[in-house]
Amino acid sequence: MEENHSTGEVFPAGMPYLWHLAQRYGYASDYTAITHPSLPNYLAIFSGSAFNDPPDCSPGPGCSYPAPSVFGQALAMGKTARAYQESMPAPCDRSDSGNYAVRHNPWAYIPAEAAACRAGDVPSGTPSSGPLASDVRAGTLPNVGLLTPNLINDAHDGTLGQADAWLRRWIPVIMSGPDWRRHRLAIAVVFDEGETTNQVPLVLIAPGLSSTVIRRPLDHYALTRLIDTVIGAPPLRRAVGAPGLARQLGLKAGDPARQHTGSFDGYGVMLMRRAAAAASVRLVTPSLARMWEMCTLTVFSLMNRSWAMRRLLSPSASSVRTCRSVG
To answer: How far apart are the C-alpha atoms of 141 and 147, rounded to whole Å?
Structure first.
């Protein structure tokens, strides 16, 4: 997920590579964060609630939140979940360290899922080596995943140019894996919160998207609902009232009991993945799930045999399709 920049600061000049992806694939033109500061926005996406807008506290008494998260939902359904955190010293680290900020790691705040977090919340590594690069090469991105950049690369302490360069290094790597090549991966990039306004970028990247603009008002709970829809789980908490994105993304829901999911990583990017005999969706966001106060990448990987990507544009359609309806 990305951090602390409003849409007008980011597009078009602030992050030209991300703007190129937005124009080529798709973006939401009226997308807002929930609140301030960072932590409640991360909780909103990954737990379906901002829990009364806590400050950026560290996990512990008075700063922990109930299960399930979307990670826990996926695991309870027999699916996979993983979070990739840049510069994190140890799995599910609950303390700030260097350029790692625990407030951008929402799984660490769910005590009931502590064991799962220790197993699935890992240092991301680099584009050439480490857990994320290995999962990309193997085609094993999780059903629900999150990729979070560090404080420099998410534009919290660094610049938008540094965040854009970070995406330019990671996105081609993610697209080089079998999940993308076999048309079973989608990517979403989003910011956690804005500065000048709380309207923030949401960019959607998938093989079936072409110059798509989603104009209906959306917020972070729409991402929560998208994750739950893809994994076949009921919408979590406040996501119940959020608009659906599946239709805009060209996804057709089947029997939830037969679905399999991939992963969601956070940096403001989501990846949706489809497996060999199953359609899977992976969502990547720099934490390739949000671009808010900090530049974080979130990745969703969702395998689902009942889902299929369909073309959003017919040969006779205009070059830009505006999506107003919801799934």
So the answer is: 11
Q: What is the pLDDT of residues 128-166, one digit of tens each?
A: 999 999 999 999 998 888 999 999 999 999 999 999 999
- 7-50+67-323: CATH topology is Alkaline Phosphatase, subunit A (3.40.720)
Sheet holding 187-190, edge to edge: 187-190, 202-205, 26-28, 212-214, 321-323
* 3-class state of residue 293 by DSSP: strand
d(CA 22, CA 7): 12
Q: What is the 3-state secondary structure (H, E, C) of 141-162?
A: CCCEEEEECCCCCCCCCCCHHH
CA distances from 102 to 95, 152, 168, 265, 298 (A): 6, 14, 24, 15, 15
Nearest-angstrom CA–CA distance, 276 and 238:
33
d(CA 216, CA 252): 19
| Whether 203 contacts 214, CB under 8 Å | no
